[in-house]
Write a structure and sequence with these properties.
535 residues; mainly alpha; Serine Threonine Protein Phosphatase 5, Tetratricopeptide repeat
Amino acid sequence: MAYTVSAKPGASLWALVVLLSFPLAEAQTPEKAWTETTAEGQKAYQKGDFVQAEKYFLEAVHRAEQFGPEDPRLATSLNTLADLYRAQSKYAEAEPLFKRSLAIMEKALGPNHPSVAATLSNLASIYQDQNRLAEAEPLLERTVAIWEKVLGPENPVLAQSLVTLAELNRTQGKNAEAEPLFRRSLAIMEKVLGPENPNVAATLNSLGALYSVQGQMSEAEPLLKRSLEIYEKALGPTHFKVAVALNDLGAFYHREGRYGEAEPLLKRALGISERALGPEHPVVLRVLNDLASLYHDQDKFKEAEPLLERSVAAAEKSLPPNDPELATRFLDLADVYQDLGKYEKAEPLFQRALAVRIQAFGADHPNVAVVLTRQGKLRLQQGRLPEAEAFLKHSLELWERAYGSNSPNVAAALADLAEAHRRQGNVEGARHLLDRALVIWQAAAGPESASVAAALDDLAAFHQQQGTFDIAEPLFALALELWIRVLGPDHPQVGREMEGYARLLRQMGRDADADDWEVRARAIRERQENSTPPQ
């Protein structure tokens, strides 16, 4: 995944378009006052003084309204104020301002003007921030069409718009639509800017991330490595974008189960980003979370804990109290507290995350369902079973309402709810939910996927707990076979599956078979422990 220094990009592109679109200010008092007020607001904005920036931008809007209700300068001021609100996650305030700015621009300058394209992109960005992806998509498609018409088919601005649209498609799971957009953008940038340009590196990174999501690991790795090499050569080894590329490559190795290669890259990324950007920058926080995630997946919860505590403290200081990113930080730390058995610390963080997401997205949003699921699992672990069932049922209802009854999210929710039923003695209800989840995964992800393997694991574990070993054993065996095909024979997850299968075999009295699987699992673990990072 590619990152930018600004957590809420958009203002710089708008400023460029404004400079290109309007004549220099004439020596008139209203014009000069508007220009100076806007400039002062921009200075405050760049310093992070949002309170002072808002005062100046509101004054600039008031001054611009004196030029007339359809003057492009009013559109400029509305757009600037909206961008400030977006930076603070004040989406309800930002959206009508962007829309009003867009209407003025379209009428004053025509539907295909660069300023219209910039405003469309800004409006799309607040929809993306709120996960209103279906509303953002046509705006970005129109943005691409305008830039292509105005600038031609081989312009870097068009290439960047293609990347933005591709990222949106990837977020929606439309990988088939995203790939050609990434590839076209890459071809434009390589031809116009040269193969060693940092913009090329950014697009390589995004395309590599797409291939990684699709499981095309052999295609992804060389792109991520080339991106890192370009950044190091073009910008030097201590530039923050080098840290970003190191982090992305480290995260890739993490997903591959190559923990020994991932950790030094993530640690180097953390050191570079801290020195280049300061300890509380969003890029630094992202690296902290990725390194903590690596430790978490290795059950190194005590190593993950201080990283996430630092991340939460910095996020609380730098982000608005209703920013959805803050909720994500709360959830990550709460998960680690839960794994460490610190339930009294985990529960209030889950509650805070829920409150932030309800405020940001509304009570029926899928992002709220994510928090409800986590709260339900915490209560399962605490043995508070009726409460757990209530949370998990509510989560399931939200997923079904948002995506229909046959979505992968519904399948995961069914499996979680099944555990609550099983723990309360509703064995038949639990089995029914697990069967339904498996059917959904097979239809949604195909018969050979990690999701189907996980669903088979859930169903096998259920029968193991019920003592029906003759049903559990073939399910475990099939799940293990799928994990090996999907992840490869040396992935840590495969080793964990082998250990679980061996435990079942011992319960069945098949000690010799269990010994064989434990030896294979131990060999995987030893290879991971002895792995060294590439030089």
